Please model this.
Amino acid sequence: MSSGNNNVNTKLDFDESNPKPASVYLGSLKEFFKETAPNATVEQQSRLNNLLLSMIQMNHNIFKNQQEATFRKVENMKDAVKKFEEKTEEIKREILQGPREAIHEELTELLKKRHELQDQLSDMKAACSSLDQKMKDEMVNHQEDMEKKAKAHRAEMVEMAAKISELQEKLSS
Model:
Protein backbone atom coordinates (compact mmCIF):
# COMPACT_ATOMS: atom_id res chain seq x y z
CA MET A 1 0.00 0.00 0.00
CA SER A 2 1.41 3.39 -0.91
CA SER A 3 1.91 6.06 1.70
CA GLY A 4 -0.57 8.38 -0.07
CA ASN A 5 -3.40 5.94 0.60
CA ASN A 6 -2.63 5.82 4.32
CA ASN A 7 -4.28 9.23 4.73
CA VAL A 8 -7.63 8.16 3.25
CA ASN A 9 -10.46 8.57 5.77
CA THR A 10 -12.72 5.55 5.42
CA LYS A 11 -14.91 6.41 8.42
CA LEU A 12 -18.23 8.10 7.71
CA ASP A 13 -20.17 9.69 10.55
CA PHE A 14 -23.62 8.10 10.70
CA ASP A 15 -26.15 9.83 12.93
CA GLU A 16 -29.43 7.94 13.18
CA SER A 17 -31.21 10.93 14.71
CA ASN A 18 -30.11 13.27 11.90
CA PRO A 19 -29.27 11.23 8.80
CA LYS A 20 -27.54 12.89 5.90
CA PRO A 21 -28.96 12.66 2.37
CA ALA A 22 -27.87 9.64 0.36
CA SER A 23 -25.91 11.94 -1.95
CA VAL A 24 -23.46 12.69 0.90
CA TYR A 25 -22.65 9.02 1.35
CA LEU A 26 -22.51 8.38 -2.39
CA GLY A 27 -20.15 11.33 -2.80
CA SER A 28 -17.97 9.96 0.01
CA LEU A 29 -17.90 6.58 -1.71
CA LYS A 30 -16.84 8.18 -4.99
CA GLU A 31 -14.14 10.26 -3.25
CA PHE A 32 -12.87 7.16 -1.45
CA PHE A 33 -12.70 5.36 -4.80
CA LYS A 34 -10.77 8.24 -6.39
CA GLU A 35 -8.32 8.36 -3.49
CA THR A 36 -7.76 4.61 -3.26
CA ALA A 37 -7.76 3.89 -6.99
CA PRO A 38 -6.44 7.00 -8.77
CA ASN A 39 -5.35 4.89 -11.76
CA ALA A 40 -8.69 3.13 -12.19
CA THR A 41 -9.63 2.21 -15.71
CA VAL A 42 -12.55 3.81 -17.53
CA GLU A 43 -14.39 0.51 -17.16
CA GLN A 44 -13.83 0.50 -13.40
CA GLN A 45 -14.98 4.11 -13.14
CA SER A 46 -18.00 3.26 -15.26
CA ARG A 47 -18.84 0.35 -12.95
CA LEU A 48 -18.65 2.69 -9.96
CA ASN A 49 -20.91 5.20 -11.70
CA ASN A 50 -23.38 2.42 -12.53
CA LEU A 51 -23.31 1.29 -8.89
CA LEU A 52 -23.96 4.84 -7.71
CA LEU A 53 -26.81 5.23 -10.19
CA SER A 54 -28.40 1.96 -8.99
CA MET A 55 -28.14 3.12 -5.39
CA ILE A 56 -29.79 6.42 -6.29
CA GLN A 57 -32.56 4.58 -8.16
CA MET A 58 -33.08 2.30 -5.16
CA ASN A 59 -33.38 5.34 -2.87
CA HIS A 60 -35.85 6.91 -5.27
CA ASN A 61 -37.92 3.71 -5.29
CA ILE A 62 -37.93 3.60 -1.48
CA PHE A 63 -39.18 7.21 -1.31
CA LYS A 64 -41.79 6.43 -3.95
CA ASN A 65 -43.00 3.35 -2.04
CA GLN A 66 -43.19 5.34 1.19
CA GLN A 67 -45.19 8.05 -0.53
CA GLU A 68 -47.58 5.48 -2.05
CA ALA A 69 -48.06 3.83 1.35
CA THR A 70 -48.81 7.23 2.89
CA PHE A 71 -51.35 7.99 0.17
CA ARG A 72 -53.03 4.61 0.81
CA LYS A 73 -53.21 5.44 4.53
CA VAL A 74 -54.78 8.80 3.68
CA GLU A 75 -57.37 7.08 1.49
CA ASN A 76 -58.15 4.61 4.29
CA MET A 77 -58.52 7.52 6.70
CA LYS A 78 -60.90 9.24 4.28
CA ASP A 79 -63.01 6.06 4.13
CA ALA A 80 -63.04 5.83 7.93
CA VAL A 81 -64.08 9.49 8.24
CA LYS A 82 -66.85 8.92 5.69
CA LYS A 83 -68.12 5.89 7.62
CA PHE A 84 -68.11 7.90 10.84
CA GLU A 85 -70.00 10.70 9.11
CA GLU A 86 -72.59 8.20 7.87
CA LYS A 87 -72.88 6.71 11.36
CA THR A 88 -73.22 10.20 12.82
CA GLU A 89 -76.07 10.96 10.44
CA GLU A 90 -77.73 7.67 11.37
CA ILE A 91 -77.42 8.52 15.06
CA LYS A 92 -78.84 12.00 14.45
CA ARG A 93 -81.89 10.38 12.88
CA GLU A 94 -82.19 7.97 15.83
CA ILE A 95 -82.00 10.90 18.25
CA LEU A 96 -85.06 12.34 16.65
CA GLN A 97 -86.85 8.98 16.91
CA GLY A 98 -85.49 7.17 19.98
CA PRO A 99 -84.10 7.47 23.49
CA ARG A 100 -82.13 10.67 23.48
CA GLU A 101 -79.68 10.26 26.33
CA ALA A 102 -77.99 6.98 25.23
CA ILE A 103 -77.86 8.07 21.63
CA HIS A 104 -76.51 11.48 22.59
CA GLU A 105 -73.57 9.82 24.39
CA GLU A 106 -72.87 7.62 21.37
CA LEU A 107 -73.13 10.60 19.05
CA THR A 108 -70.75 12.61 21.23
CA GLU A 109 -68.26 9.73 21.18
CA LEU A 110 -68.56 9.37 17.40
CA LEU A 111 -68.12 13.09 16.89
CA LYS A 112 -65.00 12.95 19.06
CA LYS A 113 -63.66 10.05 16.98
CA ARG A 114 -64.54 11.90 13.80
CA HIS A 115 -62.54 14.93 14.93
CA GLU A 116 -59.62 12.69 15.86
CA LEU A 117 -59.72 11.05 12.43
CA GLN A 118 -59.93 14.42 10.74
CA ASP A 119 -56.89 15.57 12.74
CA GLN A 120 -55.03 12.40 11.74
CA LEU A 121 -56.03 12.97 8.13
CA SER A 122 -54.68 16.53 8.30
CA ASP A 123 -51.43 15.23 9.80
CA MET A 124 -51.15 12.61 7.04
CA LYS A 125 -51.71 15.26 4.37
CA ALA A 126 -49.01 17.44 5.93
CA ALA A 127 -46.65 14.45 6.05
CA CYS A 128 -47.39 13.67 2.39
CA SER A 129 -46.73 17.27 1.44
CA SER A 130 -43.47 17.31 3.38
CA LEU A 131 -42.35 14.00 1.87
CA ASP A 132 -43.28 15.21 -1.59
CA GLN A 133 -41.21 18.39 -1.12
CA LYS A 134 -38.26 16.39 0.20
CA MET A 135 -38.45 14.09 -2.82
CA LYS A 136 -38.60 17.05 -5.19
CA ASP A 137 -35.59 18.66 -3.48
CA GLU A 138 -33.65 15.36 -3.59
CA MET A 139 -34.46 14.92 -7.28
CA VAL A 140 -33.33 18.49 -8.08
CA ASN A 141 -30.10 17.95 -6.12
CA HIS A 142 -29.61 14.57 -7.75
CA GLN A 143 -30.22 15.99 -11.24
CA GLU A 144 -27.73 18.81 -10.64
CA ASP A 145 -25.20 16.37 -9.22
CA MET A 146 -25.62 13.98 -12.15
CA GLU A 147 -25.21 16.84 -14.65
CA LYS A 148 -22.00 17.92 -12.93
CA LYS A 149 -20.73 14.34 -12.91
CA ALA A 150 -21.63 13.86 -16.56
CA LYS A 151 -19.82 17.09 -17.48
CA ALA A 152 -16.76 16.06 -15.47
CA HIS A 153 -16.86 12.59 -17.02
CA ARG A 154 -16.98 14.06 -20.54
CA ALA A 155 -14.02 16.31 -19.70
CA GLU A 156 -12.09 13.31 -18.38
CA MET A 157 -12.88 11.35 -21.55
CA VAL A 158 -11.65 14.23 -23.75
CA GLU A 159 -8.48 14.47 -21.66
CA MET A 160 -7.92 10.71 -21.86
CA ALA A 161 -8.50 10.72 -25.63
CA ALA A 162 -5.88 13.47 -25.99
CA LYS A 163 -3.42 11.48 -23.89
CA ILE A 164 -4.06 8.34 -25.95
CA SER A 165 -3.50 10.28 -29.18
CA GLU A 166 -0.31 11.72 -27.76
CA LEU A 167 0.92 8.26 -26.74
CA GLN A 168 0.03 6.83 -30.16
CA GLU A 169 2.04 9.60 -31.85
CA LYS A 170 5.01 8.88 -29.59
CA LEU A 171 4.77 5.17 -30.32
CA SER A 172 4.56 5.68 -34.08
CA SER A 173 7.63 7.94 -34.15
User: Anything to note?
Assistant: Residues 1-9 have pLDDT under 50 and may be disordered. DSSP finds three helices and no strands in the chain. The first helix runs from residue 22 to 36. Residues 58-136 form one domain.
